[in-house]
Specification:
The structure holds two protein chains of two kinds.
Chain A: E1 2-9, H1 13-24, H2 26-31, E2 34-43, E3 46-49, H3 56-66, H4 76-82, E4 87-90, H5 102-111, E5 115-118, H6 121-137, E6 142-143, H7 155-161, E7 167-173, H8 176-187, H9 193-202, H10 211-214, H11 217-230, E8 241-242, H12 250-258, E9 261-270, E10 273-282, E11 293-300, E12 304-311, H13 315-332
Parallel strand pairs in A: 1-2, 1-4, 4-5, 5-6, 8-10
Antiparallel strand pairs in A: 2-3, 7-9, 7-11, 9-10, 11-12
Helix pairs in contact in A: 1-13, 4-5, 5-6, 6-11, 8-9
Chain B: E1 5-13, H1 19-29, E2 33-39, E3 50-58, H2 60-72, E4 76-80, E5 87-95, H3 102-110, E6 115-123, E7 131-139, H4 142-158, E8 162-164
Classes of the chains: A alpha/beta, B alpha+beta.
């Protein structure tokens, strides 16, 4: 049995999902020889630390009742520097301008020879090259499957399962909120963009400020991460040509439907093109998935098109991608 | 509602067994409805292929993938419909389409001589709001269509029209 100690930095929806998934999967983890202990949890108000392993159910309950997990007044940098552990799981919110607080958390972790698994897009969009090089220099692993497509394995699929294939193009639906809005507008004749947006807000599918989703910024972040990771590019957010979905009309969806198409917000990564824009997708095409689903089609040199689809967000769904990264680090040790 | 369109297509098949199946199976895959098949054995081409006219109905969105599949099966397509315009691009437009002079946009494409706008329908729910339209641009070949597409995208950008293209319609100009 090998023991891996982890910290969870950020205890919002994704961080709590990670705690739940680790708690649920204890028997399985033991069966593969992994004793996974959460030794620290940090949120914006402080932290809980226990070198023997935190009782995750108690931590989740305290968060639910008091709004914080904090028992100590220490921040993430303190925990990453001073608490002995192997993997930092960063689930802090995304800031695509500064990359913070994830960027500092991750760089500090590398400097202290700790592996990192993150779901935060900000650090990768702002400074991918520096992060990858710092991880390599310190001989630690850096995994971030949860940043693109939530639960869908896209990065690890391209890197591991499709190793040896030249990836020529990746295109897909990388934002579930936009997919929900466009799907509903297409299904309910006469529903305007504004009608469906308020429905999405009511269902918790859209955020109070939906700008990042509906203007295509969130999908563009994922395009940047795919380009830098799978295509070895060195591109920034500004390099992506972005058109959002706010101008899409019910009439446009009807005209498209009359000719056998649906309209989807599609991200494209290939040599010479980085884009996010509404595109016409033939009905029945693998990219024509509905609701909040995400989908990615990977065009390979040897294997043709490989398409993966599934939930692009959600607490447990995103945590499942984080758990798979943790297990894959365990297997490299 | 326009679910499918009638297509008359001239194919040139090798004179060996199984060739017609290579044309008909993709048609079935893309949910085409076969109306008739006519062999013209008497009009054998100089390369020894047999001209076959196939008439069918198919969803417009499935025509391009069908043509691709036929090319993959090494089936030569000599003609699609009566016109010689064999490459088509279907797009949706959103914006002040009428106010920004749609006729000028169409004329610019028609003036290329190798491409033209063959279909257009406009939906304008409010006088001062943005309207939506579908447009089909047809051209004599892939390169001609790509030239027309780039010209059209330039014009649309200048008029602040949102153009929604089919996935994969970003072909490189070959020459």
């Amino acid at each position: 049995m090998k023991t891996l100690r982890i910290s969870i930095i950020g205890f919002g929806s994704v961080g709590q999902g990670v705690a739940r998934v680790i708690s649920m999967k204890q028997d399985y983890l033991q069966s593969i020889g992994l004793d996974l202990k959460v030794v620290a949890i940090v949120d914006s108000k402080g932290c809980e630390i226990d070198a023997k392993g935190i009782n995750l159910n108690n931590a989740l309950e305290r968060k639910a009742t008091t709004g914080t997990v904090a028992l100590l007044d220490k921040d993430s940098i303190y925990v990453i520097k001073n608490i002995e552990h192997d993997i930092v799981v960063d689930t802090t919110p995304t800031n695509i301008e500064t990359g913070e607080p994830g960027l500092s958390n991750i760089l500090t972790a590398f400097e202290h020879k700790r592996h990192v698994v993150t779901s935060s897009k900000g650090p990768l969009v702002v400074d991918h090259k520096r992060l990858v090089e710092t991880a390599r220099k310190n001989n630690v692993e850096f995994r971030y499957e949860a940043t693109v497509g939530g639960a869908i394995p896209i990065l690890n699929l391209a890197r591991d399962a499709l190793a040896g294939n030249k990836i020529e193009r990746i295109e897909g639906i990388l934002n579930g909120t936009c997919n929900f809005i466009l799907s509903r507008m297409a299904e309910q004749e006469g529903y305007t963009y504004e009608d469906v947006l308020s429905e999405a807000l009511g269902l918790g599918i859209a955020e109070t400020d939906p700008t990042s989703d509906v203007e295509g910024y969130d999908a563009a972040c994922k395009v940047v991460i795919l380009a830098n990771t799978i295509f070895n590019m060195n591109v920034k957010f500004e390099d992506v040509a972005i058109t959002g979905i706010t101008r899409i009309t019910p009439e446009a969806l009807k005209l498209a439907a009359d000719h056998g198409y649906v309209i989807k917000l599609i991200g494209v990564v290939r040599e010479g093109e980085l884009s996010v824009a509404p595109k016409l997708v033939p009905k029945g095409h693998p990219l024509s998935v509905r609701g909040t689903l995400n989908v990615a089609s990977i065009q390979t040199q040897l294997a043709g098109h490989i398409t993966v689809s599934g939930p692009g967000a959600g607490s447990l769904e995103t945590a499942s991608a984080i758990l798979s990264d943790i297990i894959s680090i365990y297997r490299t040790q | 509602m326009k679910e499918s369109t009638r297509i008359s297509m001239d194919l040139e098949l090798k004179d060996i067994p199984g060739q017609l199946a290579l044309a008909l199976i993709p048609l079935s895959e893309f949910k085409g409805n076969l109306v008739g098949v006519f062999h013209h054995r008497e009009k054998r081409t100089p390369s020894g292929r047999i001209p076959v006219n196939m008439a069918f109905e198919i969803a417009p969105a499935n025509l391009a993938p069908l043509l691709e599949k036929l090319a993959e099966n090494d089936i030569s397509v000599a003609r699609v419909n009566e016109d010689r315009l064999i490459e088509q691009l279907f797009v949706i437009l959103i914006g002040h389409i009428v106010h920004t002079d749609i006729k000028d946009t169409i004329d610019a494409i028609d003036k290329t001589g190798s491409a033209e706008v063959i279909d257009l329908s406009l939906s304008m729910p409010k006088i001062d709001g943005e309207s939506s339209a579908h447009m089909i641009i047809s051209a004599t070949g892939k390169n001609e269509l790509e030239h027309a597409r780039r010209l059209f995208l330039d014009i649309a950008k200048g008029k602040n029209l949102l153009v929604i293209e089919p996935i994969g319609s970003d072909g490189e100009v070959l020459a």
